[in-house]
Prior knowledge:
Elements: E1 2-8, H1 18-33, E2 42-48, H2 58-63, E3 69-72, H3 79-88, E4 96-100, E5 103-105, H4 112-118, E6 123-125, E7 135-140, E8 144-149, E9 163-165, H5 167-173, H6 182-195, E10 200-202, E11 209-211, H7 220-227
Parallel strand pairs: 1-2, 1-4, 2-3, 6-10
Antiparallel strand pairs: 4-9, 5-11, 6-9, 7-8, 8-10
Amino acid sequence: MVTIVMTTWDPLATSSHPRFDYALLSADSLQQHLGQDLMSPVDLILADDGSETIDPLMPIVRLWNRGECRIVTGDHDGIGASLNRAVASLSRSEPWIYTTDDWLLTEPLGLRSPLRILQDYDCVRLGPIHPNLFCTTKFEQGTGWWLELHANLGGFVFATRPFLANPSMINRVGPFDESLDSYEVERRYSLRFAAAGCTCAAMNLAGPWEHIGEYEVGDQAVVRTFQNRKVGDYA
């Protein structure tokens, strides 16, 4: 069985809930398109970051028919805290998928091939990756092509874009940093991922994902600087 973890947070304590509207669209796209090649259930965890109310998320719970759907929430302490609460409720032996409430899956995306190569990696990215990464092309009959990303050479090999995680990833890297903005959580975990010697692959580089809504990951000059550094620079 595979469990999807979707992080979400509604910053408005009003009758308008735009981020939850994104979550509704994204969850529907996942239900329609993700892993339809699997016979086993696909559960969904909505990892809320302490929103004023989670009532607008209840339609997702009612409409999800691929498996179990539940909401995990707590204090507003950043995306890292949301992820840690969700991961703590997962099986220690089964893979899980991460996505956010503003990534829309626009076409069918099978999971048999990603799950196959996940046996050899700690993480498999399922969509757009970052530029300036070092990689090796790989091929296997019946599985197809993928990229093996080299975390020791720097850049955002791990990132909080859609990925499939082996339970070994959390065991090796540890929990996510809390009380930080999303960019800093991503940056720190990427460095720790590399320092732990974790391995990562990437498939479906051209999609089929569409980013919806507002998105700011941090100062772009800082992002470019980080992408061009190696792990040893931060020792």
